[in-house]
Amino acid sequence: MRMAKLAAVVAVVGSLSGCVGSNAVTGYLMEMNLKAVDNRYARGGLNMLLAPVYGITVAADYIVFNSLEFWTGKNPLSGSSHIFDTKMKTFIDVNHKLDKSLTTAPIKPLANRVIEQGQIEQLDQNTLQMHITYNTGETATLLGVRDGETVTYYLDGDVVAQTTMDELAAYAAARA
Predict the structure, then answer these.
(1) Are 119 and 129 a contacting pair, CB within 8 Å?
(2) pLDDT for 145 beyond 90
(3) How many CA atoms lie within 13 A of 24 on its CB side?
(4) Residue 86 lies in a domain
(5) Engineered SS bond to 134: which of 37, 113, 158, 163, CB 3.0-4.6 Å?
(6) Closest Cα to residue 126, out of 40, 57, 74, 56?
(7) Which of residues 102, 133, 160 is at a domain's end?
(8) 47 and 93 co-located in one domain
C-alpha cells in the first residue's frame, strides 16, 4: 500500500510538471544523427530510420528528465536551466508580488553534474541502451526495454519510468 501511495504521488507530481524542458536525451540522439554523415539527404534518411529510437528518447525526456528539470530548475543530463526560468520582457509581471519560494524551482538540483558524453546503442529489437559519462567522471546506464505495448526505463538497473507505445505515439504525433 505504501508503494502504491508513493507511485501515485510520483505520477501526480510528474504530471503537474508538463513536458516542457530541454529534451537533452533527444538532443544527444540528434547530435549523433548529425555526426553520422555530412549529407542532408542521408541525414534525413537516417532520421527516418531512427524514428522508433526518437520515440524512446522523447519519452525518457518527457517522463523523466524534463520533469526533473522542471522541479529542480536544471536538467540532470545537460545542466541547462529550465526554459520557464528564462528572463525576458513579459506581458504580466507577478513575481514581485509573490513569496520568493513561489518564483524558483522548489527542489535543489539532484547533482551539479552534467553529461559530457552519451552513446546510444540498440541491443535488440526491443532494447535501447545509453551509456552516460558525467563531467565528474561518474557513469550511468539508461535502458529502455519494450515488452509488448509497454516501455520501461531503467537508470543503473532501477526502474525510473514506464510508458505505453500508445502514449509514445500520441506524444510524437503532438510534437510533429
Answers:
(1) no
(2) yes
(3) 25
(4) yes
(5) 113
(6) 56
(7) 102
(8) yes
Picking from 49, 81, 102, the residue at the C-terminal end of a domain is 102
Average pLDDT, the chain: 83
Out of 6-20, 66-80, 131-145, 158-172, which region has the weakest mean confidence (pLDDT)?
A: 6-20
Do residues 22 and 75 touch, judged by C-beta distance below 8 A?
Answer: yes
What b/e string do you get for 10-42 counting C-beta neighbours within 10 Å, with b at 16 or more?
Answer: eeeebeebebebbbbbbbbbbeebeeeeeeeee
pLDDT above 60: residue 15: no
Grid cell of 89 as nine digits: 520582457
Q: Are residues 97 and 119 in the same domain?
A: no
Do 141 and 130 meet the contact criterion of CB atoms below 8 Å apart? yes
| H helix runs in the chain, sequence order | 2-16, 24-36, 40-49, 51-60, 66-72, 165-175
The model's pLDDT over 122-136, given as tens digits with 9 standing for 90+, comes to 999 999 898 988 878
Query: Domain count of the chain?
Result: 2
Do 64 and 140 belong together in one domain? no
Q: Return all residues near 15 (Cβ < 8 A) that are at least 6 apart.
A: none
Q: Based on the fold, state whether residues 86 and 122 are members of the same structural domain.
A: no
